[in-house]
Amino acid sequence: MANEARRTLLAAKAAARKMAQLSTEQKNQALESFAVRVQANAEVLIKANEKDLKAHQGKISAALMNRLELNAAKIELITKMILGVRDLEDPSGKILQHMELDTGLELVKKTVPLGVLVVVFESRPDVIPQISSLVLKSGNAVVLKGGSEAKNTNAAFEKIWLETAKEHRFLPAKWVQQVGGRDEFRSLLQHHDLIDLVIPRGSNALVNAVMKQTKAPVLGHAEGICSMFIHDSAILATALELVIDAKLQSPSTCNAIETLLVHNSIAKEFFSLFHDVNDEAKIKVLACPRTRKFLKKAGKATDKDFFKEFGDDRLAIKIVDSVEQAIEHINTHGSHHTDAIVAQDAQACAEFCNNVDSATVLSNASTRFADGYRLGLGAEVGVSTSKIHARGPAGLESLVTTKFIVTGEGQVVSDYIGDRAKAFKHRP
User: Fold this and answer.
1) Packed helices 182-189 and 2-19: angle between N→C axes, nearest 10 degrees
2) CB count, 10 Å around CB of 209?
3) Which range among 281-285, 287-291, 392-396 shows the weakest confidence by mean pLDDT?
4) C-alpha to C-alpha distance for 266 and 232, rounded to whole angstroms
5) pLDDT bucket at 426, cuts 50 / 70 / 90
6) How, if at all, do strands 116-121 and 141-145 pair?
7) Distance CA 384, CA 209 (A)
8) d(C-alpha 318, C-alpha 322), whole Å
């Protein structure tokens, strides 16, 4: 298995060298063909997905079943996403700096693809078209490991890419590959000398497990302990709508809120409205002692509950007395992922957005906007709470790095050292 894993990565490495040479026009042609084929194969994809859904009915949670399902609306969105990536600026080959070091000695700093990516993801079949589109546009190669829950859907997407590659011969063989079992994936991770970046798409447990198994760089996120703060200047009807969307639109995702903070001066009015709305919404509330005076049927929230990513319909609620308290709570209990404020007070919004130490911060918008496609990145390869290389939803710009190219006319360093050293110009 170790030999097989190494052969897979060596093939990816060879493909990556060729991918780096593709023109923007070639990349866009392939992406457009892929989008057309995805739409044309909608029925095939849905039938493959139905096999996955049937195989896991009753075996996984309703939230995971929702993420696993592929329907016509999702396929339409995937098609738009692929075309969106096509329309983005090519991130590779951009000149970031051009400097004259001295007469006849010039420096160019440019962007180049990372090389070989290894991506592991859980039960989300839309990840393959997302990742592969971004990988192609950035000029990289990728080895994918999808969740077994979506194996039939993943195989159907892979087949569409193989058909697209036959149409466009400039795409090298093995630029996108898929591995099956966990043992095979673990074996891949041991060959860190052939991997430029590992991207785990899934839970914090998955990210941590991958980090422990490889010496290769890993782009991942901490738990999605996201919060929303309702300021006393908020329009309460708007606030309620944002809370419902941020918690229930897709509760298993890492950018759904797990904590709600409410300013004490509006608590009575807000919770009266929340109580009525929640009769239909059915959010399971865990509340601090001050909140339970208004929501008497709520469960008791311990301090530990404010450190949890529930990933379901549970929500921990706490009353705070100021913007400063809300910021302190989030920076202490949160995971620096995504947090939001609802307020009409511009100064409060600015203070919150400037001082909350998270990868994505929003004012008067749902945390569910913290997504590569929605933020105009075309799609996302993952989310990072790291402050090195990439932070927040990671798109095309996170799949390239830089290199320096120096062009001279026979210059030697010795001429720039000593009593008679020549001076550098360092002129842009």
Assistant:
1) 70
2) 15
3) 392-396
4) 6
5) very high
6) parallel
7) 16
8) 12
Nearest to 330 by CA among 419, 402, 228: 228
Q: In this predicted model, what pLDDT tens digit does every residue of 102-112 receive, in sequence order? A: 999 999 999 99
Angstrom distances, CA of residue 194 to CA of 2, 174, 209: 13, 14, 20
Strands (E), 175-225: 176-178, 197-201
pLDDT at position 180 is 82
Extract the tokens encoding 270. 């807000």
Rg (CA), the chain: 25
Q: Tell me the average pLDDT across 361-380.
A: 88
Say if residue 1's pLDDT is above 70: no
> How far apart, in Å, are the Cα atoms of 44 and each of 24, 47, 78, 380?
30, 5, 15, 25
Q: Give the separation between CA 394 and CA 377, rounded to whole angstroms.
A: 8
What's the rounded Cα separation, in Å, for the pair 231 and 226?
A: 16
DSSP string, 52-109: HHHHHTTTS-HHHHHHH---HHHHHHHHHHHHHHHHSPP-TT-EEEEEEEETTEEEEE
Distance CA 364, CA 343 (A): 7
pLDDT band at residue 205 using 50, 70 and 90 as cut-offs: confident
The two three-digit tokens of residue 406, written as one number: 């120096």
Q: Which two tokens stand for residue 48?
A: 């493959």
Evaluate whether 368 touches 245 at the Cβ level (below 8 Å).
Answer: yes
Q: Please report the pLDDT score of residue 315 as a whole number.
A: 97
CA 259, CA 315: separation in Å to the nearest integer? 6
pLDDT at 93: 94
Residue whose structure tokens are 């919150």: 352
Whether 259 and 304 have beta carbons less than 8 Å apart is answered as: no
**Token representation of residue 40:** 């044309």
CB-CB contact of 382 with 135 (8 Å): no
